[in-house]
Amino acid sequence: MLTLKELQRLLSGELLTPETNTDMDCSEIFASDLMSDVLAFMHPGSILVTGQVNTHVIRTACLADVAAIVFIQGKRPDDAVMEEARLHSLPIISTSCSMFEACSRISRFIPDGG
């Protein structure tokens, strides 16, 4: 099992919300750019890996009880997205990894693929 802090290191990511808790366990990961899939299939408390960087992602994350979000491809959300994430104390990590690379790295540490 990984903590969010370890996941950040594993993905060579940057924590964009340093005021949030990174000691949480990352036992489940869900990777998708389709927010409808997040709402339909993601388990509450999972980490979302996505290339979408808009306020809709944050709102969906709140509805789906997402524990944290990892933005791929070096994408960085704008100020409105970050403000919404901070409002909900939602940890945000940005990584230069592609979706495939991020999932490949994570899969080595999450039992049963998470």
Question: Which secondary structure elements does this structure contain, and how are they paired or packed?
Answer:
Layout (H helix, E strand, L loop, with lengths): L1 E2 H7 L3 E2 L9 E2 L2 E3 L3 H7 L5 E4 L4 H9 L4 E4 L7 H9 L4 E3 L4 H9 L7
Parallel strand pairs: 4-5, 5-6, 6-7
Antiparallel strand pairs: 1-3, 2-7
What does this entry look like structurally?
This protein has one domain: HprK N-terminal domain-like (Udp-n-acetylmuramoylalanyl-d-glutamate--2,6- Diaminopimelate Ligase, Chain: A, domain 1). It is 36% helix and 18% strand. The chain has helices at residues 4-10, 35-41, 55-63, 79-87, 99-107; strands at residues 2-3, 14-15, 25-26, 29-31, 47-50, 68-71, 92-94. Strands 2-7-6-5-4 form a 5-stranded mixed beta sheet, covered by helices on one side. Strand 6, helix 4 and strand 7 form a beta-alpha-beta unit. The radius of gyration is 12 Å and the shape is globular. It starts with a strand and ends in a 7-residue tail after the last helix. The relative contact order is 0.25.
